[in-house]
Amino acid sequence: MNRFSETTVLVTGSSSGIGAAIARRFSAEGANVVLNSRTREDIEKVAKNLPDDRTLIVEGAIGGADFAKEIVGKTVERFGGLDVLVNNAGIVDQRASLADLSPARLTRMFAVNITGAILVAQQAVALMRRGSAGGGIVNVSSTAARKGMGGQYMDYAASKAAIDCFTIGLADELAGEGIRVNAVRPGLIDTEI
Q1: Distance between CA 11 and CA 126 in Å, rounded?
Q2: H-type helices in 60-189, by residue range?
């Protein structure tokens, strides 16, 4: 029996890089895996090497309440529940100083990197609270959250610092309910982002 058989894992932003590696590993360990990306073509590249009966593709951009409900709803419809959420979806933009950070860029950065993570977690937690087995949430942060990245990626760093704060708060809120909440803070990883 594989380590994660009978476990369902939702990995946002799983069409490449860290998210794809996480999805592949969970699948190799026997988990049902829900893959997510903005474009179906990108996510199908990951899905083609995973077992069809244990893989679900949910295409769409993380960031809105409707999509958060949709992705968790489709997970439940296909696999009957959700055990682990990996909030991995994230974006970064071109290098920029404070003067170059437009309202549109900031809105997009925070919509994907923090608002989307919170909204998907909200739906996942509501589902996990109904079950008796608890669950787990892993938020993917970045070492940029500790460095600030002034004159480079300050908005990205701020969004990842918000993920760190959200993780601490949610872990505190759910501590007595059997739902574990953690974050990982990768350094520089050679991926498309």
Answers
A1: 17
A2: 65-79, 103-110, 116-130, 144-147, 154-174
Residues constituting the chain: 193
Q: Which of 115, 156, 160, 166 is catalytic?
A: 156
Token pair of 145 as six digits = 């959250």
Confirm whether pTM is higher than 0.90: yes
In this structure, are residues 82 and 132 in contact, taking their beta carbons and an 8 Å threshold?
A: no
C-alpha–C-alpha distance, residues 123 and 129, integer Å: 10
pLDDT digit string, tens, across residues 132-161: 678 999 999 999 999 999 999 999 999 999
The backbone torsions φ and ψ at residue 2, rounded to the nearest 5 degrees and listed phi first, read -75, 155
Active site residue 153: no
Interatomic CA distance for residues 113 and 47, integer angstroms? 23
Q: How many CB atoms lie within 10 A of CB 134?
A: 13
